[in-house]
Amino acid sequence: MDQNNNKLFVGGISWDTNDESLKAFFSKVGEVVDAIIVKDKRTGKSKGFGFVTMSSEEEATKALETLNNQELDGRTLRVARALPPKQREQRA
């Protein structure tokens, strides 16, 4: 099973949101394997984006379609398929 197809990028995350509340939000549409908000290494503060891994590609698609542009903790989330690191470098 290729988990890259199950991994979603989530942008626009509120500073009030934590890993647990992000996981709970995505759990409304399917089984969440992992939910991580990226934090600044020096300050420990959220960078405003993170990644959610769903249990299947179908659930990831459902989460993408259902939760993109939805509000969590006062911020509108942007949900997209996460790109593998090599593709991110090429796009930059």
Q: What is the residue-mean pLDDT, rounded to a whole number?
A: 91
Structural class: alpha+beta
User: Main beta sheet: strand number and arrangement?
Assistant: 4 strands, antiparallel
Rough outline: globular
Helix content: 25-40%
Strand content: 25-35%
Return the string of H and E elements.
EHEEHEEEH
Q: What is the alpha-carbon Rg in Å? A: 13 Å
Number of helices: 3
State the end-to-end distance: 28 Å
Q: Show unreliable segments.
A: none
Biggest sheet: strand arrangement = 2-3-1-6
**Beta strand count:** 6
Describe the protein.
It is globular, with a radius of gyration of 13 Å. The termini are far apart. The strands form two sheets. A four-stranded antiparallel sheet has the order 2-3-1-6. The chain has a two-stranded antiparallel sheet with strand order 4-5. The longest helix is centred in the C-terminal third of the chain and has 11 residues, at 57-67. β4 and β5 form a beta hairpin. By secondary structure, it is an alpha+beta fold. The mean pLDDT is 91. The protein has three helices and six strands. Helix content is 29%, strand content 33%.
